[in-house]
């Protein structure tokens, strides 16, 4: 039984096109030309309870738009969406009480008050029973390790601390479905890791269904088994992360450490160099040629160390979307 | 219904906590606000040193009206204006979603989330001033008159809240207009004068289109024992009409927002 | 009130924009319309109030038609004369920008700020003048406005406006520099405007103040921030009184100039001491 079911989702909207310059501005006052933007163009997928799914794709591909359709913020132009059996667009109270959407860098906490006050307020808004609230709050606070900043005003917190509080605020009502839109954007490395660990733990412990979009491949790699790749509003791939490598990467990376300088031009002539900055040399080798190239390298280069790796998911994705600004 | 009352209690309580956070600021601001009150009353008194009547209203009557209208303005500021300004900001910057995601009526959340208490001392000062001005003008309203006064006053608050909310909702389309609150301020200040100062078509405009009479004139007249003909019916009519139109337009705006986003 | 000031500043910022980028203005046309509309409401109310006032022979020496003119001219004057850099100065000090922009460079803070004000005001003058002339023509048509115009009054009042500008500027500059020592200085600005509005002729002409109060007002600087040029223009004070007023105005300009110098010296020390 799917928790999230999307069939042929379409989300188009009209944007008016303004010609540049002064004449364009004047023209815009009188007649406007509109054209259709196909933010989401016929996407279908199903997600089961407890899955932790990643959405990836270039900027403007339609990821955030899809999330907004799933949470009821946008009215789909076409298709059918069902989350927890509800039509999100209806915005039924029962539905809203079971979901949560967290958008990185957009906050819902009261700025001048300690985070705890927003938490208490959310308790009232979501009508969480006292005992359950206290239990959930304690668990979340200890998971995030923020006992000592609960009473500090939100405006005095660092970005990382604020994000943790935002997450807690979003989880106090124990939502069954959690949408995370770029939750780690702008955070330092340490905070990023803490947030990711927390999400993983939360998913494991509460079997919450989580959809995550992120700019950083690292986030997706760490958390998600399953990814959906969305490009120009269409679904390009829906499956296991490991399958992407199989399907889209036809090469492997042979990584060498040299113990003597070698002329880069000579190296380039003999081998498919991906990157060379002494002492590291990385070759991008077709799968069926790995054995031959490796042997040739060991024969002709002063190799101190060698390893064979799968290409980074990031690189694969980048190649998939060559020339585009991916996320 | 009960749920919303409880929610409002929490909003109010949180706002009160904010007040204590900023108590020093609020104190200074209150002093300044009371200075403005003094300036307003002083100006009227001095003007009446040279003037006998303002559209038939005498000095004491004008003073009382000014104080009541300023009280009206301050209550509007306390309950709504800050929220409307913030709401305008959220809509214009696309940060409105978090309100829509809550399992609570979005209009309620947007309008009442935070109460501003920085006028609280001035409001107290004004009530004090009224206790002095009313007997001075030989005005001793009966219980019934006070009830009617309160009725007009509260009706005015609701009507103007509806009107301002309606205007602020246009921010969904007019993304570049950030200064609606400026007009609201001007209008509420204009309500400090008897609505009779206007003539002809302008009077018609300020009686029926933007019902300035409901800011102070109608309610104050009750205290003086005058009930303007048709004012009761008008107040009731305005109440119902503005509520329906603002709600209708709000739902329409939401639908528009939710089908053509970004 | 704070909202009104913020809006005023934002309008200021964006009207400055206007001069350079017409297209950008088209973008903010809504806000400008709102601004025009809110000022129209204000003017309509003021004019209606005075037209609905009845009483003795005149209003503090002004006939009814004159007083309508007073407020209309006052409205225009308001946009011309308020060269107040208060918020920019306070912000620059609070944010520390002042270090890079002025404390290190060898030019005068005073003139730098003055020329910035001149920048946006020269434009606002054109906008305000247009609006005022349009309204004057309308009111003239309805015969609601009328006063005795004399060229020498215009000339003298223009001089009074210029000195008024310097006074407003220097006074506000000093107030803004309080930011060197205090964090919440905006209340000072609000009080400044309250005083100017009440004692400076904005809410009511200063001739409404009786006897001893009137003398105090003539000594205080607020009158010269607004009322003085209007009094000259509407021929309400004699030549002798005008020169006396001019002298007092110049006194205050000198006073605030000295105060500025003092605050600047002290302020710089405080500032660098804290290594902002």
Give structural notes:
The complex is a heterotrimer of chains A (327), B (262) and C (276). With 327 residues, chain A is of the alpha/beta class. In chain A, 37% of the residues lie in helices and 30% in strands. Chain A has helices at residues 21-30, 63-70, 93-96, 115-126, 130-144, 159-171, 189-206, 217-223, 241-248, 264-270, 290-300, 313-320; strands at residues 2-17, 33-48, 52-56, 78-83, 99-103, 177-181, 209-213, 226-231, 234-240, 251-258, 273-277, 280-286, 303-309. Chain A has a six-stranded mixed sheet, with helices on both faces. In chain A, strands 11-12-10-13 form a four-stranded antiparallel sheet, with helices on one face. In chain A, strands 2-1-4 form a three-stranded antiparallel sheet. Chain A starts with a strand and ends in a 7-residue tail after the last helix. Mean pLDDT of chain A is 83; it is low at 323-327. The mean pLDDT of chain B is 90. Chain B has helices at 2-21, 23-47, 59-92, 97-100, 106-112, 120-136, 143-169, 180-190, 200-209, 217-223, 231-257, and one strand at 51-54. Chain B is mainly α. Chain B has one domain. Chain C is mainly α. Chain C has one domain (8-270). Chain C is globular and about 60 Å long. At the B-C interface, helix 2, strand 1 and helix 8 of B face helix 1, helix 3, strand 1 and helix 9 of C. Strand 1 (51-54) of chain B pairs antiparallel with strand 1 (53-55) of chain C.
């Amino acid at each position: 039984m799917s928790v999230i079911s999307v069939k042929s989702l379409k989300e188009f909207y009209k944007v008016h096109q303004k010609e540049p310059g002064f004449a364009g501005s004047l023209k815009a006052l009188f007649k406007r030309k509109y054209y259709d933007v196909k933010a989401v163009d016929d996407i279908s997928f199903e997600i089961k309870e407890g899955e932790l799914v990643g959405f990836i794709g270039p900027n403007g591909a339609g990821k955030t738009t899809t999330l907004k359709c799933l949470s009821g913020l946008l009215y789909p132009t076409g298709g059918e969406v069902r989350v927890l059996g509800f039509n999100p667009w209806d915005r039924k109270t029962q539905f809203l009480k079971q979901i949560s959407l967290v958008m990185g860098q957009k906050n819902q906490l009261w700025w001048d008050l300690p985070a705890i006050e927003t938490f208490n307020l959310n308790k009232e808004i979501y009508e969480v029973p006292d005992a359950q609230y206290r239990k959930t709050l304690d668990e979340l606070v200890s998971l995030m390790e923020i006992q000592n900043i609960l009473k500090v005003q939100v405006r005095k917190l660092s970005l990382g601390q604020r994000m943790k509080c935002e997450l807690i605020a979003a989880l106090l009502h124990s939502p069954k479905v959690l949408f995370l839109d770029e939750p780690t954007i702008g955070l330092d490395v340490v905070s990023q890791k803490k947030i990711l660990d927390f999400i993983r733990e939360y998913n494991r412990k509460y079997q919450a269904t989580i959809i995550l979009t992120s700019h950083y491949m690292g986030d997706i790699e760490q958390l998600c088994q399953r990814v959906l790749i969305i490009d120009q509003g269409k679904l390009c791939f829906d499956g296991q992360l490991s399958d992407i490598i199989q399907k889209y990467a036809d090469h492997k990376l042979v990584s060498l450490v040299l113990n003597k300088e070698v002329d880069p031009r000579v190296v380039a002539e003999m081998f498919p160099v991906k990157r060379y900055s002494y002492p590291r040399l990385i070759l991008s080798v077709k799968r069926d040629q790995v054995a031959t190239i490796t042997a040739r390298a060991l024969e002709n280069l002063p190799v101190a160390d060698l390893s064979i790796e799968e290409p980074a998911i990031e690189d694969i994705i980048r190649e998939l979307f060559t020339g585009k600004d991916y996320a | 219904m009960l749920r919303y009352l409880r929610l409002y209690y929490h909003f109010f309580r949180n706002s009160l906590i904010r007040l204590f956070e900023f108590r020093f600021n609020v104190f200074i601001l209150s002093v300044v606000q009371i200075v403005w009150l003094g300036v307003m009353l002083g100006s009227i008194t001095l003007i009446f040193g040279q003037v006998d009547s303002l559209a038939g209203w005498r000095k004491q009557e004008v003073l009382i009206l000014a104080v009541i209208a300023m009280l009206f303005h301050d209550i509007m500021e306390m309950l709504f204006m800050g929220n409307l300004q913030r709401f305008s900001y959220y809509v214009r910057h696309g940060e409105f979603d978090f309100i829509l995601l809550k399992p609570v009526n979005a209009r309620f959340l947007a309008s009442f989330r935070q109460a501003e208490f920085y006028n609280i001392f001035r409001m107290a000062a004004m009530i004090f001033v009224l206790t002095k001005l009313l007997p001075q003008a030989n005005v001793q309203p009966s219980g019934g008159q006070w009830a009617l006064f309160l009725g007009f006053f509260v009706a005015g608050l609701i009507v103007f809240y509806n009107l301002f909310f309606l205007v602020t909702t246009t921010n969904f389309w007019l993304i570049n207009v950030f200064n609606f609150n400026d007009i609201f301020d001007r209008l509420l200040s204009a309500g400090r004068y008897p609505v009779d100062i206007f003539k002809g078509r302008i009077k018609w405009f300020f009686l029926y289109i933007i019902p300035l009479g409901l800011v102070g004139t109608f309610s104050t007249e009750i205290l003086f024992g005058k009930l303007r003909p048709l004012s009761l019916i008008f107040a009731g009519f305005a109440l119902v009409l503005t509520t329906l139109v603002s709600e209708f337009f709000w739902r329409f705006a939401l639908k528009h927002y939710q089908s053509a986003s970004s | 009130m704070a909202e009104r000031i913020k809006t005023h500043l934002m309008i200021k910022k964006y009207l400055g924009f206007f001069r350079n980028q017409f297209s950008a203005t088209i973008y903010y046309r809504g806000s400008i319309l709102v601004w025009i509309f809110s000022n129209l409401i204000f003017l309509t109310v003021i004019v209606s109030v005075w037209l609905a006032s009845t009483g003795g022979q005149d209003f503090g020496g002004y006939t009814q038609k004159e007083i309508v003119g007073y407020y209309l001219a006052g409205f225009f004057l308001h946009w011309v004369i308020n060269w107040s850099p208060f918020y920019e100065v306070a912000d620059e000090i609070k944010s520390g920008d002042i270090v890079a922009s002025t404390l290190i460079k060898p030019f005068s803070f005073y003139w730098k700020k003055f020329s910035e004000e001149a920048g946006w005001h020269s434009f606002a003058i054109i906008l305000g003048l247009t609006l005022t002339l349009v309204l004057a023509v309308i009111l003239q048509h309805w015969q609601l406005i009328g006063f005795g115009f004399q060229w020498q009054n215009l000339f003298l009042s223009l001089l009074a406006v210029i000195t008024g500008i310097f006074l407003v500027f220097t006074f506000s500059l000093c107030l803004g520099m309080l930011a060197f020592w205090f964090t919440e200085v905006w209340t000072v600005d609000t009080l400044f405007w309250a005083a100017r509005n009440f004692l400076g002729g904005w809410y009511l002409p200063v001739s409404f103040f009786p006897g001893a109060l009137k003398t105090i007002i003539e000594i205080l600087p607020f009158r010269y921030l607004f009322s003085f040029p209007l009094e000259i223009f509407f021929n309400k004070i004699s030549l002798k009184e005008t020169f006396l007023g001019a002298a007092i105005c110049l006194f205050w300009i000198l006073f605030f100039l000295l105060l500025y110098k003092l605050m600047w010296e002290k302020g710089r020390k405080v500032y660098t001491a804290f290594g902002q």
